[in-house]
Amino acid sequence: MEESLMKSGLETKNSKKFADNLDVVVAKILQKQGPLDELDLSLLKLSLSHIVNLLRTDLVGRLEEYLPMRLPIHGLVGPCNDFNSRGLSGESSGLFDKIAAEVMSDASVEEVLATVLDLKRAHIGKGRHSQEYRLLSILEYVIESADDWQPDDSEMTVYRRVATVMDYLFRSTDVKLMDGESASQCTKSARQYMENVFGGSIPDTAHGRKIDLILKRANNGGDIELSSNEFKRQRVSSTCALAQQCKNLRTNGAILAHLEAIDNQHRHRHVVAMDWIGNVGYLYMLANVEGVYVADKLCILRLPRCLNDVATFKPTLEALFRYQCFITQLGHQSLSMLQAREDLESLSGIVDTGSEAIPAPAKHRIFFAPQNHRIKRPKVNQP
Question: Tens of pLDDT along 329-342?
């Protein structure tokens, strides 16, 4: 596979397409002498997948060393503005401000919780799944658990606390939270596609990459993957954190490629996901810009570690409800498009449906190295 990829890179050296020039980056990295450092290794995997990571300035700097040209970021403006147009309702915002004011007045944990519970009782009439009631439930949980955070918390502990917040966000929305290191079927499909294109084989029993938390739209067993999210403990090395980021970008790239394949109206051009390290994390968008998947930060997330932190929790709450709205809408649209495609396919054996069908976009390749497989740089005959 590596020789095929290097040849592709050398042949597109003078291309003006950014996607093609990422193949040049691959060729340059593979021609380097000596072992690859962590930046080169991540850049190699991402460039093989036609993914540009704008989340880390050091990775952007390394990319520009190999490819000094304009990065394709213009296509992110519209999707990011649309994402940020969502958020808390005026009533939800007012409820938070009331709780924050009490926190700032040096009230005790018990006094603040009593206020939250009083507000929950007052809003239960609007339903347990109203935004206001969800917000109050999240506030109750983070206030109760704020003092539990410790620097040596395990990865599972970090996941459990964030996942509890996610449960409140997505309960009764038809979005399923699949945890326990669930396997992503989109990554399995991506690996199979790469093997078909570049040669080699993977066993029929191969599974997709294991993910800490996958959000899926329920679909009677044929659930649609919408977002992959990863978690690490607070005391994690920078090398491990970068590897996690690289993995999650490619996993969400595989998810985006699948969504694009089932969307005959070409509306699914971006996904949103999270990475967490301890009680802090970030939301990012991965968008298709001129055939390249570009990742950029949307915002920083932070769960409170003490009662006083609750007063500054509003931006994170705003972002989490934006995420909920985006994922829920993406799930509805994806299911609708999948059902429309399946309905059309049911007629294909008895009537010509060619005039109704809209060709799917070219499959976006996502590179996943087999586990315990080291990337080898083949020898290239120099002219």
Answer: 999 999 888 887 77
- DSSP output for 28-62: HHHT-SS---HHHHHHHHHHHTTEEE-S-HHHHHH
Same-domain check for residues 47 and 133: no
The two three-digit tokens of residue 302, written as one number = 């932070």
- 253 and 205, same domain (yes or no): yes
Q: What is the dihedral of CA 339, 345, 347, 353, to 10 degrees?
A: 110
Do 47 and 189 share a structural domain? no
Residue 274 phi, psi dihedral angles, 5° rounding: -130, 150
Global pTM value = 0.86
Q: Are residues 38 and 161 in the same domain?
A: no
Vertex 350, ends 349 and 351: CA angle to 5°?
105
Q: Within a domain: residue 131?
A: yes
Find the domain containing 129 and state its range: 87-346
**Span 50-84, pLDDT tens digits:** 999 999 999 999 999 998 777 777 788 999 999 99
How would you label 342-352 residue by residue, b for 16+ Cβ within 10 Å and e otherwise? Answer: eeeeeeeeeee
What is the SS3 assignment for 296-309? EEEEEEECCCCHHH
- In the predicted model, is pLDDT for residue 1 greater than 90? no
Q: Give CA angle at 301 (187, 133), nearest 5°.
A: 100
Residue after which a domain boundary falls, among 71, 98, 115: 71
